[in-house]
């Protein structure tokens, strides 16, 4: 994943389309947002749309807008996604679900950098970077005449593949710590400790639903936690049913991540405190980004001022 983020940071400096490949729930939109944040368009809008969620008969209007009276029910003119993303980035999630007629119009928009709203006779210039994503094998879809080859090659100027979580065992630990931090803050919970059995179960599970399943499990556990402790029984049943050996490197006695990192002692013997978990993960991400605090905060999903506060804590 370190190489993936390195490549994404380099691609962000280009303005060419990017195609992100990966199973559902692997974090394709998060990667797309990171690319936008690192690009020169970072101060403009990032508009995300799931192509599978829009009815086929409404797609053209949703993407390109329409004029008043263009069709029955068009009581007023309306901007489309391209106009809303003007100057910024448009993220087309599940582009493999886009019908062929709209694929042709999207290709034309990419080539000509213009769009024509429904009911209009005038072309409108657009300045939008396209970042697309899919869980499908688009080359297979091309062979089955479900996806245009010319659009595929236009989008594939730069492509990134996010491996499923089951292929990223080392990343699970990082994500667990980051998501505990995230949902503790979102729910304003005074979570002080994580039961070792709970942490072990979170790290041992294979997550067929990828990052989305992991986040849902942690959100549930943080919500159900009480008395400042996240316990094994707070996890979904499917995680509790997969016990495994305690993951090396998590014991408070010998689990330092970086050679010079002195972590605070656990407030309850044998149980890692939330402060310990936060510190370990923050230093790992900081090391992975080469000390870049802006990118570290982005990868952690927290504000930079929050990162600075965490680093200053004893």
Quick summary:
With 314 residues, this protein is of the alpha/beta class. The chain is 43% helix and 10% strand.
Structural class: alpha/beta
Cα end-to-end separation: 29 Å
The helix content, as a percent range, equals 40-55%
The value of Rg in angstroms is: 23 Å
Based on CA inertia axes, which overall geometry fits? elongated
> What series of H and E elements makes up the topology?
HEHEHHEHEEEHHEHEHHEHHHH
Low-confidence stretches are 244-269
CATH superfamily of the largest domain: P-loop containing nucleotide triphosphate hydrolases
Strand tally, please? 9
**Reading side by side through the largest sheet, how are the strands ordered?**
2-3-6-1-7
Write down the overall mean pLDDT.
84
Q: What is the CATH level 1 assignment of the largest domain?
A: Alpha Beta
Beta-strand fraction estimate: 5-15%
**CATH topology (fold) name of the largest domain:** Rossmann fold
Q: What's the multimeric state?
A: single chain
How many distinct helices? 14
Largest sheet: 5 strands, parallel
């Amino acid at each position: 994943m370190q190489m993936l983020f390195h490549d994404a940071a380099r691609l962000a400096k280009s303005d060419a389309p990017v195609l992100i490949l990966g199973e559902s729930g692997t974090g394709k939109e998060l990667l797309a947002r990171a690319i936008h944040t690192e690009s020169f368009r970072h101060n403009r809008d990032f508009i995300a749309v799931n192509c599978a969620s829009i009815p086929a008969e409404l797609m053209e209007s949703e993407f390109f807008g329409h004029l008043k009276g263009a069709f029955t029910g068009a009581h007023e003119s309306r901007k489309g996604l391209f106009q809303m993303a003007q100057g910024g980035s448009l993220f087309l999630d599940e582009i493999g679900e886009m019908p062929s007629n709209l694929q042709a119009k999207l290709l034309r928009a990419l080539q000509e950098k213009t769009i024509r709203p429904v009911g209009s006779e005038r072309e409108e210039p657009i300045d939008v970077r396209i970042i697309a994503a899919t869980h499908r094998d688009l080359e297979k879809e091309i062979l089955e005449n479900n996806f245009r080859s010319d659009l595929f090659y236009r989008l594939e100027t730069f492509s990134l593949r996010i491996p499923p979580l089951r292929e990223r065992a080392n990343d699970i630990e990082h994500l667990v710590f980051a998501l505990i931090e995230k949902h503790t803050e979102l729910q304003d919970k005074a979570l002080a400790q994580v039961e070792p059995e709970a942490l072990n179960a979170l790290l041992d599970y294979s997550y067929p639903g990828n990052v989305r399943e992991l986040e849902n499990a942690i959100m549930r556990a943080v919500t159900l936690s009480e008395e400042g402790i996240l316990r094994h029984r707070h996890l979904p049943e499917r995680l509790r049913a997969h016990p495994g050996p305690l993951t090396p490197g998590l014991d408070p006695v010998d689990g330092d991540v970086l050679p010079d990192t002195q972590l605070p002692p656990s407030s309850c013997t044998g149980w890692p405190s939330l402060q310990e978990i936060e510190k370990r993960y923050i230093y790992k991400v900081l090391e992975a980004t080469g000390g870049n605090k802006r990118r570290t905060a982005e990868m952690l999903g927290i504000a930079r001022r929050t990162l600075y506060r965490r680093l200053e804590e004893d």
